[in-house]
Amino acid sequence: MEAFGLVLIEAQAHGLPVAHSDLPGVREILGSSGVPYIPGDPRSLATALDEMGRDLHRRKVLTEAAVNNARRYNITTTGCRLRELTLRVAFQRPRHQRA
């Protein structure tokens, strides 16, 4: 099992709506940009896939949300966030020196 969900983000970057295991880490990564199903429950997975297959409007909404969500994890965005975090930590005064 992959902890981050890179495959899901890659699918979203290609504009694909995703059905995903309803697990805490995946929920955090995808938010409402995918359709969750209960891991190990084939009926739950079938329901999630049926929802995406039947409802064209929902699929379009999920596709747009997928692309927007994937942008949060692209290399440029990730690099900028890492740089900001590094600068914040590197130049933060130790607690004992704060006024």
UniProtKB/TrEMBL annotation:
Q: Which top-level group of life is the source organism from?
A: Bacteria
**Record's protein name:** Glycosyl transferase family 1 domain-containing protein
Organism field: Streptomyces thermogriseus
